[in-house]
Amino acid sequence: MSIQREIQKRRWRQLLLLAIVLPALTLFVSHELGLHVFHLPKAGVFSLAFLFVCGGAILTASNWRCPVCRTYLGGSINPERCRGCGRRLRGVGD
Ligand SMILES: [Zn+2]
Fold first, then answer.
1. What is the Å distance from ligand 1's center to 81 Cα?
2. How many structural domains does the chain have?
3. DSSP characters for the chain?
């Protein structure tokens, strides 16, 4: 599998992770602002958001790495090159 294809697979995983974590964070913030959408207890909302954010951080630390040298790729969702080994991560069509 090419580096570009592997990084594309990892990018999709990151986007899926964001799609899971972001609603939990939105629920927490809306609850803190007094918008009790689902009428959940405060401790439950906090625990849920904490669990999702921590899980997301752990999964990101594991997934979002260069397929060649395993260097963490940072905050960009579409890095051009790896900061560790310098390999090109974007395909020609990206
Ligand atoms: Zn690398």
1. 8
2. 1
3. --HHHHHHHHHHHHHHHHHHHHHHHHHHHHHHTT--SS---HHHHHHHHHHHHHHHHHHHHHHSB-TTT--B--S-SS-SB-TTT--B-S-TT-
| Distance from residue 22's CA to the centre of ligand 1 (Å) | 28
Q: Give tens-digit pLDDT for 12-55.
A: 999 999 999 999 999 899 988 988 777 888 888 899 999 999 99
State the distance from the centre of ligand 1 to the C-alpha of 50, rounded, in angstroms.
31
Question: What domain range includes position 69?
Answer: 1-94
Name the pTM for this structure: 0.80
Please give the distance, rounded to the nearest whole angstrom, from the Cα atom of residue 38 to the centre of ligand 1. 44
Q: What is the C-alpha separation between 77 and 64, in angstroms, rounded?
A: 9
